[in-house]
Amino acid sequence: MLGNFEYSNPTKLYFGEDALSYLGGELATYGKRVLLIYGGGSIKKNGIYDDVIKILKDADKDVFEVSGVMPNPTLEKLYEGCRVAKENNVDLILSVGGGSCCDYAKAVSVSTHCEEDPWEKYYLRMEDVDNKIIPVGCILTMVGTGSEMNGGSVITNSKSKLKIGHVFGDKVFPKFSILNPIYTYTLPEYQMVAGFYDIMSHILEQYFSGTDDNTSDYIMEGLLKSLINSSKIALKEPQNYEARSNIMWIATWALNTLVAKGKTTDWMVHMIGQSVGGHTNATHGMTLSAISMPYYRHIMPDGLAKFKRYAINVWNVNPEGKSDDEVAKIGLDQMENYMKELGLVMNLTELGVTEEMLSNIADGAFILPGGYKILTKEEIIQILKQSL
Ligand code: NZQ
Ligand code: ZN
Q1: Average pLDDT, the chain
Q2: On the chain, which terminus has fewer CB atoms closer than 10 Å, C or N?
Q3: 146 CA to middle of ligand 2, Å?
Q4: Where are the beta strands (DSSP E) in the chain?
Q5: Ligand 1 centre from 191 Cα, in Å?
């Protein structure tokens, strides 16, 4: 049975090849002072930076910049962004990049006018925002996180090696997001496929919970099938617009909070993967792919009916003459084959994890109760060991 919920999503999306042409109209809503946030320089190479600057100048904005936002943005970098935003009293934060830039923009948005240390308040104590929020707009260049239409903001404290996400309420969601699938063409293959798996993982984290007949599960099976189909095409033809645009849209739906409504949701692959990221700074999607198969094989007996349904409805496994257990196992084997076909990282050793690190990584993984099994620290270590 669907649980009770509230639902609203305030992010306005502009999707398609001409999406950037709507930026000027959006800018008119906000004050003169804009903080432009971007990463290590990909937007300068592919020309997106010049196009955005031209629109900002045409709109007569004063532009301030924070560049060099790294994948897995750090707390030190957050302090820098807050300083620049405060000194220049900015009216809008415009993120141009992937999930890291968008997450970072949201963190700057809530932290600039925060009297306390944002790490303590938002990331360790998970408190709500009770200070001024600077509006955020997003121009997305990397697909996967769903950050363009949610309140998620993940920050890494490189001193304590804790990587923590705060899921802020809808006041912190981007006010608008510009999604042009062509912007994703210049992604290196490693990042592209990491993004594909991030999307898959977001869907599975929500799918593998509950035993009820829930509409969201049917929606997620559809999203998964479309993702599997389009990702295989995009791998062979990275500039296939149909495939890349489908994937961009699936990513947004996978984590714009809709399919989670009325479900308990699991999120343990992300909790463990995030801790791996805190200790290694590895690419987010690859931290998830490296641990997923051992994790799902571990919890499968506790959620057998759903794993059987997954095998049949997503991987087209024929259940005739097979036990539930056999069907579920074949489904997971097919998922593993698909992941290998994409070229995902399938073990933690490749990400620089060693056996001595496992206990600390397990300590940094928050244990959430929504999935089919509540893990103990020992089970997390066992899963990590199997992932080496
Ligand atoms: O820094 P630049 O030069 O832009 O290069 C980036 C970066 O190196 C590059 N890139 C992005 N767009 C490109 C491009 N290169 C060429 N052409 C383009 N069009 O790709 C690299 C990775 O970018 P990044 O933004 O780090 O990737 P992603 O979108 O996967 O974001 C990862 C961050 O998001 C968090 C992760 O934990 C991680 O910190 N997440 C946020 C979530 C949310 N807000 O809900 C949920 C996710 O589960 C995730 O935890
Ligand atoms: Zn993710």
Answers
A1: 98
A2: N
A3: 8
A4: 12-15, 33-38, 62-66, 92-97, 136-140, 152-157, 162-167, 176-179
A5: 8
pTM over 0.90: yes
Burial class, 150, CB count within 10 angstroms (exposed 0-12 / middle 13-18 / buried 19+): buried
Residue-range domains of the chain with CATH? 12-183 (3.40.50.1970), 189-387 (1.20.1090.10)
Q: Is 39 exposed, middle or buried (0-12, 13-18, 19+ CB in 10 A)?
A: buried
Task: Supply the angle between the helices 75-87 and 99-111 in degrees, to the nearest 10.
Answer: 60
Q: Are 216 and 260 a contacting pair, CB within 8 Å?
A: yes
Per-residue pLDDT tens digits for 347-381:
999 999 999 999 999 999 999 999 999 999 999 99
Residue 89 tokens read as: 């009293």
Check pLDDT > 90 for residue 1. Answer: no
pLDDT of 222-241, one tens digit each? Answer: 999 999 999 999 999 999 99
| 322 burial type by CB count under 10 A (0-12 exposed, 13-18 middle, 19+ buried) | middle
Which residues form ligand 1's pocket by a CB distance below 6 Å?
Answer: 39-42, 46, 71-72, 97-101, 103, 141-142, 144-147, 150, 152-154, 165, 183-184, 186-187, 191, 195, 198, 255, 270, 284
Question: What does the pLDDT look like over 295-309, one tens digit per residue?
Answer: 999 999 999 999 999
